[in-house]
Amino acid sequence: MSIKRTIKRRVMFAEIHQDTRGDEVHKFSIKYRKVDGEIGYKANVSKSIRNLPGKGKYNGNVKINHVLLLYDHDTDRTFEILIDLMIEYNGLLIDHAV
Fold it and tell me: Where on the tree of life does the source sit, at the highest rank (predicted)?
């Protein structure tokens, strides 16, 4: 039986907020629980660079409403995800305990 490695929530945010790694956009995979209870998985996402807070129509604030705006490179769409429903980041189990 293998034990899943974990990552602290704050460390995950620090990595997500890195816009680039070298010359490329920082991409990662994410597993999450949908509101209806299903498990969702997106293999190729990054932080949305099109609709950043303060620029245009997106008014989301992570500290207030606990929502991240991400971009799915496979479908070329942006989507919102509730932080508390995130399960894994790059295959690492997310530790939501403070």
Answer: Bacteria
